[in-house]
Amino acid sequence: MEEQRQLDEYSISDQMLEKQQESSELVLSKVETERIQRQDNPKQLPSSYFVSASYDGKRGKACINLYDPISKRIYFWHDTSKHKPYLLTNLSPYELDQLDRVKSHPGFDHFEQVEKFDPLLDKMVSLTKVVARDPLAIGGRPRGCLREIIPEDHAKVSTPEQPEAKVWEAAIKYYQCFIYDSHLIPGTSYSIKNGELIPATVENTENIVEKIQTTFDIQEGEEKAHIEQWAQLLEYPAPPFRRVALDIEVFSPIATRVPDPREAPYPVICACLTSKIDKDQVLLLKRKGVKDGRERLPSDASLKFFEQEKDLIEAIFKALWDYPFVITFNGDDFDLRYLAHRAEKLGIPRKEIPIEVGRRVCLLKSGVHIDLYKFFYNRSIQIYAFSNRYRDVTLDDVGKALIGLAKYDLNKPFADLSYSELARYCYRDSEITLKLTSFDDDLVLKLILVLARISKMPMEDVSRQGVSRWIRNFLHFEHRRRNFLIPNKADIFSLKGKTATTAIIKGKKYKGAIVVKPVPGVHFNVAVMDFASLYPSIIKIWNLGYQTILCPHEDDKDNIVPGTPHWICRKYKALESLLIGSLRDLRVNWYKPKSKDKTLSADVLSWYNIIQSALKVILNASYGVFGAESFDLYCPPVAEATAAIARHALTLIVKQAHDLGIEVLYGDTDSVFLKNPSREQIDELAAWSSKELKMSLDVDKVYRYAVFSSRKKNYLGIFDDGRVDVKGLTGKKRHIPRFIKDAFNQMKSRLGKVSSSEEFESAKRDIKKIVLDRYMRLKRREWENLDDLAFHVVLGEAPERYIKTTPQHVMVARMLKDRDIEMRAGDLVSFVKIKPRDMVVRNRREVISVMPMQLAADSDVDVDKYVAYLQSTFEQVLDALGLEFDEIIGLTKLERFM
DNA sequence: ATCTATGGCAAGCCGA
DNA sequence: TCGGCTTGCCAT
């Protein structure tokens, strides 16, 4: 059966390929029509991945995109049930009847009475479900939708003593609503049998889930059931993704300016489509006066010239119709948007354009578009999935950091490039884009797939939206599954919005973590113990959630969170606690250890590593979202309680360590640094933590020695193998000039070679030499390259938005603007420090002490400023080593006199 | 339209 | 001149 089906699929796709190859022009629409018909609502479909969802306005139905990993095609399935968009309201059908604009609303369908459990009020409530024919009738339009009409109109007809009309669940995207109500899980497989969608199961998965279950035998009831459900999702295999990466280049008369994609005023001059499986395509537009050039393309790419831009674009579109996954870097805002508008301008009919242009996104009509810029821009992804390995979210920087592939350097504008130079440049971009999805066994796409499963979101959304949306959506899913009313943000806040602690930082909502003052000096044999996943553990163990904190039960008011007046419910388990807690357990007790288990095959290891990093990303954000106003279940006391319990736990651990006779050198939030502890002491402390705090405290790392100054969040830790952890020191910050950073790194590697206190003396001598050498080179103005002295600071905002002060990098941006170089929020500004001088900047006289790199000369440099930087950078470490900067350089002054 | 949190350090601006 | 405030970058 299986084989037969495969053959059929392949023969169909082969035929199609041939057809397309026969004549590349005009046939497109015919072929496409045929294909779309075949793709649309097949009566039968073997197990295929639910990758995306949308609302089909023409049919008034939710539409699911299914990716068949065998034929490697996308198929569409439309909802066959009577599911419709709706909202909930406290008005009865009778009351709603009085509101003219409701029943006469063109999108209105009918009323239903429903019972839901309200987690805020802790009781069942009777509500009316107002069902509509299309989602826009519920909300989404600027005016005149039901979610606004109901409260507005009711206020007009009701008496003051009547309760006001409220609506719930009225701002949920329709396809999400459909996913929740139908219990569909994006990222997993479904087959179609006789037109109906059926969940698919994989036998092998079941076995592993069983194994996981036995690991968690200690857990009981609900918790265990959830662990099992998550495990089932996560163990489910991932398909091979058939994909193409696209990059285009557009002509621009002004070299520094990228044409506006909404206008699409100039021709597309080059496009590259890279898949590495099919033949890569380089498409070039013939233009007058352009040289061929000599640069060579990889032999597996095919080069094609077009006389007409329209033909070139149609060739791109052919691929966009064909591939189930299309990868771009900034395609939402540029490539796809430009192509769509340009195509329209050239008279290509709308229905032959494969792109759906949205306000902020560009989606594909027959596939999934992943814009890697959006994905890598996500701070949680940047920090927790890729440990800050890339700094700027540019193709060049991300490419260099993750796959070691940089963009081609261009030293002239596009207009001056030969065909081969242009092709090589564009091809490299598409190559980087593709490889960013394929490295480490398709890590990025699999990560997106796993996140789609957890969050219950389509792959497109999960790759574009932030972690707070992911968390919100799986909580929404759970609410619907249990017939819980999803509360309004305002209601949570008015009932449970007040925090009771004062933050140390001005302007913050509540008090955060503790940092233990470090013991300055050099300490040998330092063990760092930390709580595994502290905040998620607290949320789990203390049953935190908007429902359970400050609950309405009198007899729970004595169940107090230490350090706060808040109390916690004992009667119900909070959904947040349950879901975040079970994800935590799975990561800590299964996926994290398994991802390091050498007995597993490479495939399984890499898959487990993907899962554990997906969990890490979610868990690390899971506390913060409760303190984020943008989060739909915003509940500051939950965040506050989490932080308070963490302070409590850390304080107790520090005290307990002390009682066990261990010296605590330092601690931050969830960690304690222990000086030369014995095995027994470590075990005792860990045992005490499990018993008294119900949290596991493990040895995270051991330093051969650590160097502390008196500053918090500032230290060096040297591992046994000579690697050096540098935390918080100025020498590692990215805005510091390379000239200083280099010296700092020399010191760092020298410290890595020290293995005993006896060896310190010679290391100190070398370090003195390093510092002195830098100092002398500065004084003698002996730097190799002015760039080495550049500071690099990111503009947090647009230059004109700095009102209160004018920081140096902003001054630099303004100086550049006078020379027509525009700097925007997020740009990195590079400058050197100079002796103060008067200058006119933006028509104002200013005293400036900085100079943009573009304008600076060696003679401008204020050497003493750099000496001061050298001093402050090194003092953070010299302090602890018993060295003095002044002495190091003072010595030479004497010597010079002698 | 977009958005997890707070704590800590260094530098520089700017008004008292 | 001092000290509060703003800014950016980092730790967790």
Task: Please tell me about this protein's structure.
There is one protein chain. Helices cover 42% and strands 19% of the residues. It has 898 residues and is α+β, with helices and mostly antiparallel strands. The strands form 6 sheets. It has a 7-stranded antiparallel beta sheet. A 6-stranded mixed beta sheet has the order 13-12-11-10-14-17. Strands 3-2-1-8-9 form a 5-stranded antiparallel beta sheet. α25 (760-779) packs antiparallel against α27. The termini are far apart. It binds a DNA duplex (16 and 12 nucleotides) through residues 359-360, 379-380, 465-469, 471, 503-506, 508-515, 530, 534-535, 620-631, 639, 642-643, 668-671, 711-714, 727-730, 732-735, 793-794, 796, 802, 804-810, 869, 872, 876.
Layout of strands and helices, then pairs:
Blueprint: H1 2-22, H2 27-39, E1 45-56, E2 61-68, E3 73-78, E4 86-89, H3 93-97, H4 100-103, E5 108-118, E6 123-132, H5 135-138, H6 146-157, E7 167-168, H7 174-182, E8 189-193, E9 196-199, H8 203-215, H9 221-235, E10 243-250, E11 268-274, E12 280-285, E13 301-306, H10 309-322, E14 325-328, H11 331-345, E15 355-357, E16 362-364, E17 368-371, H12 372-377, H13 379-385, H14 395-403, H15 419-455, H16 459-464, H17 467-481, H18 489-496, E18 515-516, E19 521-531, H19 534-541, H20 575-594, H21 602-621, H22 636-659, E20 663-668, E21 671-675, H23 679-693, E22 697-708, E23 715-718, E24 724-727, H24 738-752, H25 760-779, E25 791-794, H26 808-818, E26 828-841, E27 844-852, H27 863-881, H28 885-897
Parallel strand pairs: 10-14, 12-13, 14-17
Antiparallel strand pairs: 1-2, 1-8, 2-3, 4-6, 4-7, 5-6, 8-9, 10-11, 11-12, 15-16, 18-20, 19-21, 19-22, 20-21, 22-23, 23-24, 25-26, 26-27
Helix pairs in contact: 7-17, 8-9, 9-20, 13-21, 14-15, 15-17, 15-21, 19-20, 19-22, 20-21, 22-23, 24-25, 25-27, 25-28
This protein binds a DNA duplex (16 and 12 nucleotides) through residues 359-360, 379-380, 465-469, 471, 503-506, 508-515, 530, 534-535, 620-631, 639, 642-643, 668-671, 711-714, 727-730, 732-735, 793-794, 796, 802, 804-810, 869, 872, 876.
